[in-house]
Amino acid sequence: MSTLADHYFSSCIDYLETLGLNSQAVLSAISFNEYSNKQAQQLAPRISLNSYNALLNYAQQTLNEPLFGFKLGQQIRTADFGILGYLIESSNNLASAITALLNYDSLVADIGKAEFELQGELAIIRWLPNANCSPQVILRNMTAWVSVIRQLLNPQLSPSTIYFTQAFTSNEKTTLASSFNCPVKTNAQYNQVVFPSSYLALPFKTDNTQINLVLKQVSEQQLSRFKSQQLLTEKISQLFIAKNDLIDCSLIRTAGALNMTPRTLQRHLKREQISFADLLEQERKRRVILCIGKEPLSNIAIKLGFNDQSSFNRAFKRWYNCTPLQYLKTLPKNIG
After folding, report:
1. CA separation, residue 130 to residues 42, 165, 237 (Å)
2. Which fold has domain 231-330?
3. Per-residue confidence at 183, pLDDT binned at 50, 70, 90?
């Protein structure tokens, strides 16, 4: 199950309190019941993605704020990231902070995968969210990255471009572009922040080498403990997300990557009440919406691991109750 740390969830509730919403009323409205001590209102150490989605969607609707995730991300503090926040804060520059993010992001929220890429004079930090992440969750995550780096380096620092997989109205795009002080591209293939690679060497004002080393050791211990408790379903989903395509993404290959026999993998998945085919289908469904309209359907079918176009068409109709061509006709043109 995809989860996030209680302090990351609590920071959302704290923000809603500042806007005049009662925390208990909010939790009751979303039928929240994830406590380690309900009588003391003590949250469980890890909160489900379902509750996180429900909280942000409730706030968006109650406040009538379509960019609620963005507003929430602007309020982020390094402390909201827990130990990862302090590890980032004590890094000597942006490059080492990004390394910390890539290594330990799951301690804060195991709801997606962060990637980093250098392309000449540009650097890219990309987020591949869990298929069930709501648009508000994605908005908060992307905005929080920019907000934290501005806090630690320079409030006026601006990315080169920010990309979102979702669409926004013209007014919403204007609001985002004004805050980020850079172009905002929508309906993109990935959610990512592009910035000059020269930023990587910028020193942090909060640099503390000794504390950073201690925090790395603690983070490694926590990560090891977290991974040992992780469901096999989550590990397979992360393997799928990390792959460039789903060609030859078979049960045998996946079992081998996890040092298991196919039979053992199937047995463990049965205990988690899901099958390998279900997990593969979830990842195909997540990817197809990111690709459709951006490249030929025949290429998409191949990348998703289908043996032929007709198999892809049947799966698409099962997922979205229409054919790929019918879906393409519903897409807005010239957005981005």
Report:
1. 27, 13, 9
2. Arc Repressor Mutant, subunit A (1.10.10)
3. very high
